[in-house]
């Protein structure tokens, strides 16, 4: 059994811990400075009286006090250098962690490509090939019926935007007393003296002639102008998207927003895996160190 005691370095203090030590040493230095001032006042009486024994004792205390101040100041200077080193270590550790997270994300992405995507890529290519053939067939049919009373047939990839699709949106508008959406429409008449005021027909009370209201407005999709609607089905195009075709890239703005919303959970997953990996490494290193004792 190896009985030789191995010299181990104490764990490096953090910048916060070093700052605490510097503040504590500053308090000690202040105490010693106040003590020196008090001793200097005490020295005057034996100096005037010619009491050399008492004077020697007080001057020895003054010298010891000054020596302690010099050591404290040296210690503070050393700790200030150590705190800068600690802050640099912490900055380096933070950057190392940022890089580690990015590398782990890259590894996850590579597995998604090589495993999940590769598993379905062949099927996806086959589907896209069939879509391309269907699109070509529809193009030929639409070309054949051009100039007749037959309407063009929409391609499957345009199912995201049915012609005539309707929805409602809320908008804020200013309406006058003669607008049907005015709360007092048909119940009031404009004042002849003040165009901003109307009088209720029943009772004669005054009401605003114009009001700002919120109302629902009916919208209708236009396949040529609004191809990328909320809730649309996104299919990848085969080759560049023709002008006005309504094709949308597989990675559009909406998909980007959805991906951004999932970033916190992905980051949490990565952080957890890194923490688990670090804990496993620490256990392994401790086991090796125990074996060497």
In words, what does this structure look like?
By secondary structure, this protein is mainly α. Among the domains are: 15-101; 166-220, no CATH class; 251-293. The chain is built from three helices and five strands; from the N terminus they run ααβββββα. It has helices spanning 15-49, 52-145, 253-292; strands at residues 166-176, 188-190, 197-200, 206-208, 210-220. The strands form two sheets. A three-stranded antiparallel sheet has the order 2-3-4, with no helix packed on it. Strand 2 and strand 3 (197-200) form a beta hairpin. Helix 1 (15-49) packs antiparallel against helix 2 (52-145). The radius of gyration is 41 Å and the shape is flat. The termini are close together. The model is unreliable at 1-6, 226-242 and 245-253 (pLDDT under 50).
Topology:
Layout: H1 15-49, H2 52-145, E1 166-176, E2 188-190, E3 197-200, E4 206-208, E5 210-220, H3 253-292
Antiparallel strand pairs: 1-5, 2-3, 3-4
Helix pairs in contact: 1-2, 2-3
């Amino acid at each position: 059994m190896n009985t030789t005691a191995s010299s181990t370095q104490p764990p490096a203090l953090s910048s916060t811990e070093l700052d605490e030590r510097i503040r504590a040493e500053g308090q000690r230095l202040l105490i010693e400075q106040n003590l020196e001032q008090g001793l200097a006042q005490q020295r005057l009486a034996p100096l005037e009286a010619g009491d050399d024994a008492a004077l020697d004792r007080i001057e020895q205390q003054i010298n010891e006090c000054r020596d302690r101040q010099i050591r404290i100041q040296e210690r503070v200077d050393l700790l200030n250098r150590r705190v800068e080193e600690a802050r640099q270590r912490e900055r380096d550790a933070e950057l190392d962690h940022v890089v580690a997270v990015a590398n782990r994300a890259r590894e996850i992405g590579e597995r998604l490509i090589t495993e999940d995507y590769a598993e379905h890529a062949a099927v996806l290519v086959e589907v896209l090939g069939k879509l391309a053939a269907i699109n070509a067939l529809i193009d030929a049919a639409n070309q054949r019926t051009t100039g007749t009373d037959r309407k063009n047939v929409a391609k499957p990839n345009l199912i995201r935007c049915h012609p005539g699709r309707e929805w409602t949106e809320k908008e804020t508008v200013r309406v006058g007393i003669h607008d049907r959406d005015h709360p007092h429409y048909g119940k009031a008449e404009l004042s002849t003296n003040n165009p901003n005021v109307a009088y209720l027909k029943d009772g004669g009370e005054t009401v605003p002639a114009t009001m700002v209201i919120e109302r629902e407005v009916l919208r209708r999709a236009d396949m040529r102008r609004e191809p990328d609607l909320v809730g649309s089905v996104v299919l990848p195009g085969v080759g560049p998207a023709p002008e006005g075709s309504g094709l949308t890239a597989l990675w559009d703005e909406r998909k980007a927003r959805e991906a951004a919303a999932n970033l916190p959970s992905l980051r949490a997953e990565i952080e957890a895996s890194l923490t688990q990996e670090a804990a496993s490494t620490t256990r392994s290193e401790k086991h090796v160190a125990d074996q060497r004792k």
